[in-house]
Amino acid sequence: MTTGFIFYSIAFFLAIFITATALYRLIPALSKYARQPIYEEGPAWHMSKSGTPTMGGITFLLAAVITLVPASLLLLKNDATVAALSLLANLTYALANGLTGLIDDMTKLRHHENKGLSPTEKLIIQFLLAGLYLFARSRIFGDSSVVYFSSGEVDLGFWYYPLSLLILVGMTNCANLTDGIDGLSSSVAFAIGISMFYMSAALSEEAAFISVVTVGICVGFLFFNLHPAKIFMGDTGSLFLGSLICTAAFSLRNPFIMFFVGGVYVIEGASVILQVTYYKLTHRRIFKMAPIHHHLEKCGMSENRICLTAIFLTLIFSVPAYFICAA
Question: What is the pTM of this model?
Answer without folding.
Answer: 0.93
